[in-house]
Design brief:
- The structure is a single chain.
- The protein is mostly beta strands.
- It folds into 2 domains: 223 residues, no CATH class; 238 residues, Jelly Rolls, CATH 2.60.120.1440.
- 12% of the residues lie in helices and 44% in strands.
- It has 6 helices and 35 strands.
- The chain has a 17-stranded mixed β-sheet that branches. Strands 27, 28, 29, 30, 31, 32, 33, 34 and 35 form a 9-stranded antiparallel β-sheet that branches. The chain has a 4-stranded mixed β-sheet with strand order 24-23-26-25.
- The radius of gyration is 25 Å and the shape is elongated.
- It starts with 16 loop residues before the first helix and ends with a strand.
């Protein structure tokens, strides 16, 4: 992976030699410092919790709780890590796609914790997946991890453990009761005991009940009746799975409907879904209705549909330019301008052998951010997946960038996807320097970026080596929130 400052330019290159030499010297000085200090950034990143999945949709209010951090509003594209908790308010609804392509929806007034998510398709014996439904309702469509290692998958609830023998099930849990049903495959439900511990994996056999898709019943456990029992589930199936239910004169659209690997969503109301599920059998006014056909969910993509207008791009402080004669992706370029356009009135900050990030600083390199800690929102991005089969334009579904100027640290993550690749997560962390440049380099990935002098904008390029000789490359632009 070659960097901007290390690329030699011939005499025939139209770039100004004096400007180029100055940029080389400046960048080399920063790079020498970064090489040693980025080792500590890589070590810090290794200590962070592992990525488990990406949020594909958020409706209403939902929150992400991470260890050592204040809760953050959840948004589409956010990366979910091991030990994270997702909570929803009375109008909140969240979809998560995990790294093994498992799909999960977290319904209103619910809380779910990702306790373990180890997945390696080449090493099924190493798979360990454990989720904890603290309260509320969730629907899970198992991914490759549960298929290749069913004995290592567990969904815990406050009073019972759930293992899988199939792919699609829904669970409602409170502190004192659990209800579960199956849409496809089978589940095994057992109360916690000395033979079924919270800390273990897989289905329990002691006092367990197995429920399959051929059974129209549901499994129920209560603290007052600790042994699981089967109950009629004709009406409750709609409330748990998200079919349209009429509650008196109120229409409650709660949940999602799965077809293959796509999850579809209906709207939600402020009424607790669990209340509907608990009362649907007892109340004579509740009748199952014909399910609505909801629209397909379209993932958010921060890649512009077409190349941004030159006037729009040049109005920003930070501008990506491509080297003359080095138009890497041709018609697929979305964020870049020619070198002549990008460099006019701007100074080079960072780049690689295809692109450079130019900053309007009027020759100054001293950053004076308005805030000590800044969280950035992704403004636009482009990313490409390179393999022996060719080049694919990836969707950039979202991400986060946080810079602590006092501690001189940054951390970022991106969620990328394509139908042919599934979800790809990119994460990086490291040092930010006095000139506003930041880096993270390792044997398998590299990234470099810069902020505007006021800290209101940021941008970085990223490169990552993947399996089988494949790689991904991309550019980002961010605005301070």
């Amino acid at each position: 992976m070659d960097y901007l400052a290390t690329q030699s330019k011939s005499a025939s290159n139209p770039i100004s030699e004096s400007g180029w030499e100055t940029a080389v010297k400046t960048f080399l000085q920063s790079l020498v410092i970064a090489t040693s200090l980025c080792l500590s950034g890589t070590a810090a990143l290794a200590q962070e919790a592992a990525p488990a999945g990406i949020v594909s949709l958020v409706l209403g209010k939902a929150w992400l709780h991470s260890a050592g951090s204040a809760r953050q509003p959840l948004h589409a594209g956010a990366v979910v890590r091991v030990s994270d908790r997702i909570s929803t308010e009375s109008n909140g609804h969240v979809h998560i796609r995990f790294i093994d392509d498992a799909l999960l929806s977290v319904r209103p007034d619910s809380e779910l914790e990702v306790q373990r998510y180890d997945f390696d398709r080449d090493d099924p014996a190493s798979v360990s997946i454990k989720l904890n439904l603290v309260e509320g309702v969730t629907r899970s469509i198992s991914g490759e991890g549960a298929h290749v290692a069913r004995e290592r998958f567990r969904l815990n609830t406050p009073i019972a453990a759930i293992g899988v023998r199939g792919t699609d099930f829904a669970v409602s849990a409170t502190e004192g009761s659990v209800r579960a049903l199956v849409n496809e495959g089978a589940i095994v439900v057992a109360p916690f005991s000395r033979d079924c511990l919270v800390d273990t994996f897989g289905p329990c056999s002691a006092n367990a009940v197995e429920l399959s898709q051929s059974n129209v019943q549901m499994v129920a456990i209560d603290r007052s009746q600790p042994l699981p029992r089967l109950l009629p589930a004709t009406d409750e199936r709609g409330a748990l799975n998200g079919d349209l239910v009429a509650a008196g004169n109120e229409r409650v659209d709660a949940g999602d409907k799965a077809t293959g690997t796509e999850v579809y969503l209906e709207t939600v109301t402020s009424r607790r879904v669990t209340d509907v599920a608990n009362n649907v059998v007892a109340s004579p006014v509740l009748r199952p209705q014909t399910p609505m056909t909801p629209p397909a969910i379209k993932p958010v993509d921060f890649t512009p549909a077409a190349s941004l207008a030159t006037t729009e791009v040049l109005a920003r402080n930070l501008v990506w330019g491509r080297w003359d004669g080095r138009d890497d992706m041709g018609a697929q370029e979305r964020l870049t301008q020619t070198y002549a356009q990008a460099s006019t009135g701007r100074d080079i900050t960072v780049g690689n052998d295809n692109y450079g990030l130019f900053r309007d600083g009027k020759g100054s390199t001293q950053i004076k951010p308005e805030h000590a800690v800044v969280s950035f929102a992704l403004q636009s991005a482009q990313a490409f997946y390179h393999s022996s089969s060719g080049v694919l334009a990836l969707q950039v579904n979202g991400g986060s960038l946080r810079i602590d100027f006092n501690e001189r640290r940054f951390a970022t993550e991106l969620g990328l996807s394509h139908a042919s690749t599934g979800v790809i997560l990119f994460t990086a962390a490291g040092r930010i320097f006095d000139a506003g440049n930041f880096y993270d380099n390792s044997d398998t990935q590299a990234m470099a970026g810069a902020v505007s002098l006021t800290g209101s904008e940021a941008g970085y390029f990223f490169e990552k080596q993947l399996d089988a000789g494949a790689s991904l490359k991309g550019l980002t632009l961010w605005d301070a929130q």
